[in-house]
Amino acid sequence: MMLLETRALTANYGQFRALFGVDITVAAGECVAIIGANGAGKSTLMRSITGVIRNEAAMVLHRGEPIGALSSAEIMKRGIAMVPEGRRLFASLSVEENLLIGGQARKAPGPWSLEAVYDLFPILRERRKNPGTALSGGQQQMVAIGRALMSNPDLLLCDEISLGLAPVVIRDIYAALPKVREGGAAIVLVEQDIGKALAVADRVYCMMEGRVTLVAKAAEVTREEIHSAYFGVA
Ligand code: ATP
């Protein structure tokens, strides 16, 4: 049984249809990358999985159970955690308080605790009393990832975690992902940087105009296949 599955998933913004029957699967412990140009529907897919957009129940399955109609809070309680685009830390709270909020959202046994997050990102231990706003963009991203991990999810969804960050910081953040998988979580990564996505993922889905145009093993996919799936040209 798949950890996560979408079946003929559609999503609309009012009259505008953004997803036209998207089928993806994520196995337990797997890392799946979702790539595609601006407007392809990647964020809408994330919002559908996390309950920000409510769908028909059977369009999203978690461990075989329909979750497409559940609220974000209910989905988070099931063990699906999101690192949102733009990080969205609580600015008036410290690093540690931000992390603890993640643990309160879902109390579940697992490898992640304050100490484990500080071991993953040691700079956060040094900054633990600082307000979220006093951090660099990369450090804020680390807090956002740590906050999601504190709920001990079985699936971590990451939306554009490298956006706007310096290469050295991106490297540190990507270096943490294998450790997240060692902790038992599967990862879905929405990523503009195709090289980064392929380096870390087992499989890659490419989306265009609300549809999946390619699914492939990251180690086997060719530049030509990605190019045509991305831009819709042969
Ligand atoms: P990006 O990389 O720019 O975030 P994306 O692949 O994540 O792109 P989505 O943000 O999912 O794409 O957008 C898919 C389509 O839905 C686009 O045509 C977009 O204009 C539209 N869209 C996204 N959010 C909304 C919204 N809140 N209201 C109306 N239309 C929206």
Automatic annotation (TrEMBL):
Keyword Transport: yes
Keywords: Amino-acid transport, ATP-binding, Nucleotide-binding, Transport
Molecular-function GO terms, alphabetical: ATP binding
Domain ABC transporter: 4-234
Coiled coil, from the record: none
Listed InterPro entries: AAA+_ATPase, ABC_transporter-like_ATP-bd, ABC_transporter-like_CS, BCAA_Transport_ATP-bd_LivF, P-loop_NTPase
Family assignment from sequence similarity: Belongs to the ABC transporter superfamily.
Protein name, per record: ABC transporter ATP-binding protein
